[in-house]
Amino acid sequence: MLLSYLYDNFIEEAEFARDCGLSPEALDAMGRARVMPSASYVYKTAGQSDSFVSEYTEEATYRFHLKGHKQWMTALARFGICSEDRARRYFFHRYDGAKEMFLTGQPGAALVGAAPDVAQQFDAAYAEQTWENFLAGVYGVCTTDGQPETVFLKQAGVLFIEALCAQGPAHLTGDRLALLGTCVDFLDQVEAAFAPHEVAQTSRQRCITDIRAQYFHAV
Fold first, then answer.
1. 41: part of which helix (H) or strand (E)?
2. What is the dihedral angle through the alpha carbons of 25, 27, 32, 37, rounded to the nearest 10 degrees?
3. pTM for the full model?
């Protein structure tokens, strides 16, 4: 099941590099230059083949990159971005744009009204951790496409859901409950399905599946 999930949602590193018009060495150099996310999953395997001719054993390591990260690679090439400083500025140009649009529109403005402390969490330290996680391939694991806009929406969804639920069920009625449902729905659109062995430990379980079961009687 794990390999099926990986091949459905990710691309093994050699193929990923080839799709991007790069050698594996060039892709590795971009990772070391801190402009390109690392592989999100590293799969190590040992296999054995038996036939009437001989037995054969092999150990191998496969690195899987999120399919959506090809979009990031395309953007780097389009804008000639080859340094971490420029890559970081480009990332936050898009990320901050998504944040501004969300927090001043709907349902973002309503969520800010219901949980005003959440917006304050998006400070400089949070931005630094976001960038480090992006480079480490973390958002390849937990978002649908790994793009800066999706990263923000995933973060906002989790933080607002946690804030809305912090005071318990007695405080979740009427408009506040409806707002929670809206937040869960948009988080569901941007958060990854996760690998089968991961689901129970993830924010998808905590903030989507469990919330729907508790407050909306959905399974």
1. strand 41-50
2. -150
3. 0.93
Report the candidate in 39, 34, 9, 45 with the shortest Cα–Cα distance to residue 24: 39
Residues 6+ apart with CB under 8 A from 163: 114, 115, 117, 118
Tell me if 151 sits within 8 A of 144, measured CB to CB.
no
User: Running DSSP on this structure, what letter comes out for residue 145?
Assistant: S
Of the candidates 33, 150, 6, 16, the residue with the CA atom closest to the CA atom of residue 74: 16
Spell out the domain ranges in the chain: 2-69, 83-215
Q: Strand 41-50 relative to strand 55-66: parallel, antiparallel, unpaired?
A: antiparallel
Per-residue DSSP letter, 199: G
Q: What tens digit of pLDDT does each residue of 9-44 get? A: 999 999 999 999 999 999 999 999 999 999 999 999
